[in-house]
Amino acid sequence: MSVPLRSGLVVAHYGRGWAVEDEQGDIFLCHALRRVPVPCVGDRVRWEQTDPGHGRIVEVLPRKTLLTRPGRGGRLRPVAANLDQVLIVIAPEPPYDLLLVDQYLVVCENHDLTPLIVVNKIDLLDPARRQRLNDDLAPYRALYPVLEVSAKTGLGITALRDALKDKASMFAGQSGVGKSSLLRTLIPDRDVRIGELSATTRRGRHTTTTAMLFHLPEGGILIDTPGVAVFGLAGIDFRQLAHGYREFRPYIPRCRFNDCRHVDDLGCAVRKAVEQGEISQARYRRYLKLLGKLPEIS
Ligand SMILES: Nc1nc2c(ncn2[C@@H]2O[C@H](COP(=O)(O)OP(=O)(O)OP(=O)(O)O)[C@@H](O)[C@H]2O)c(=O)[nH]1
Ligand SMILES: [Zn+2]
Fold first, then answer.
1. Which atom of ligand 1 is nearest to the CA of 120?
2. What is the 103 CA–ligand 1 centroid distance (Å)?
3. How far apart are CA 235 and CA 216, in angstroms?
4. Do 43 and 98 share a domain, yes or no?
5. CA spacing 20 to 30 A to 37: which of 58, 71, 164, 288?
6. Which InterPro entries match (predicted)?
7. Which ligand is closest in space to the CA of residue 181?
8. What is the rounded distance in angstroms from the CA atom of residue 60 to the CA atom of residue 39?
9. Could you report the predicted ipTM of this complex, rounded to two decimals?
10. Which helix (DSSP H) or strand (DSSP E) does residue 200 occupy?
């Protein structure tokens, strides 16, 4: 007897299982058929129920976007599918690392993900720190939306909610910048949902999820990937790196050599733009640093 296939959304990933949400919002712990691509959070799937509360994924629908991380043996593992945007969170404390911000931006630019820069903990900004932040962020404000918020006081949270509405988003940022605090502010019933998942799967220890998807109260979804580094430069070559620096793009076709890495002066339109003040020197210096981190052969 064949069971009709159902549509679902992967909302969590545990070791070898996936939590699939059906159209009514009920959650089933599923395994995946061997022939399907390894599913990940955010995937739209076709699945069939096997037992109460359980099922198996038989098809992973085509993905709009896919974020991966290097797994065992250098193979890329999927982490989050169908994302629209990434919230790059920084804060006055711990001190922000703009090289890391640039790295996140390069990955976003090369995966068709829209980056938003979120400055959290603005309640901690005194005039001196405010001045430094403004100077540091000036080149970014010209390229990307920058939202200033405080998970502590609630400042700017309405604008953040508006930016997330009806989109699939994910946080990126150093430990301690306040990602969990923001998540709690945005999704007050978060813990209820985790409890609900554990109850459904009838197993106590599901704290080791690699990723989890939450529905935002005003529409849209937010994916949390605790402790998963998905924004490394693995798989990025020097062309993609330069492409990831948005403001370089108009100049790249004007470089004399097709394989210009924008390091040497000779006929490089990007360098010329830096010298003429059209491209931020700070950003260019960070580009050179990241270029130095790429594997030699790229
Ligand atoms: N002053 C202030 N402190 C905040 C704010 N948001 C978070 N914090 C504090 O910053 C610390 C780290 O916050 P978390 O939300 O745990 O940070 P995280 O980014 O999730 O950190 P990891 O879980 O390690 O990735 C906690 O002590 C929070 O109370 C804020 O807007 N203002
Ligand atoms: Zn060049």
1. 31
2. 22
3. 32
4. no
5. 164
6. G_CP_dom, NA-bd_OB-fold, P-loop_NTPase, Ribosome_biogen_GTPase_RsgA, RsgA_GTPase_dom
7. 1
8. 7
9. 0.97
10. helix 190-201
Coil/strand/helix, residue 191? helix
Residue 264, domain CATH? 1.10.40.50
Q: Give the predicted TM-score (pTM) of the model.
A: 0.90
The enclosing H or E element of 211 equals strand 211-215
Distance CA 32, CA 38 (A): 8
Are the CB atoms for 84 and 220 separated by under 8 Å? Answer: no
pLDDT per residue as tens digits for the range 236-267: 899 999 999 999 999 999 999 999 999 988 99
**Positive or negative, the Cα torsion across 69, 289, 143, 134?**
positive
Number of domains in the chain: 3
Q: Per DSSP, what are the bridge partners of residue 83?
A: none
Closest ligand to residue 255's CA: 2
Q: Which of 217, 113, 122 is nearest to 170 (CA)?
A: 113
| Coil, strand or helix at 295 | coil
**Residue 91 sits in the same domain as residue 195:** yes
Taking alpha carbons only, the member of 242, 244, 248, 240 closest to residue 270 is: 248
Using alpha carbons, list the distances in angstroms from residue 157 to 139, 162, 184, 272.
Answer: 24, 9, 12, 40
Q: What range does the domain containing 281 cover? A: 238-293
Instruction: Quick: pLDDT tens for 96-153.
Output: 999 999 999 999 999 999 999 999 999 999 999 999 999 999 999 999 999 999 999 9
Kindly tell me the sign of the dihedral angle through the C-alpha atoms of 220, 98, 246, 76: negative
* 3-state helix vs strand vs coil in the chain, percent to 5: 30, 25, 45
Q: Are residues 108 and 199 in the same domain?
A: yes
Residue 74 lies in a domain: no
Classify residue 133 by its DSSP letter. Answer: H
The answer to whether the CB of 153 falls within 8 A of the CB of 123 is: yes
103 C-alpha to ligand 2 centroid (Å): 20
- 286 Cα to the center of ligand 1, angstroms: 26
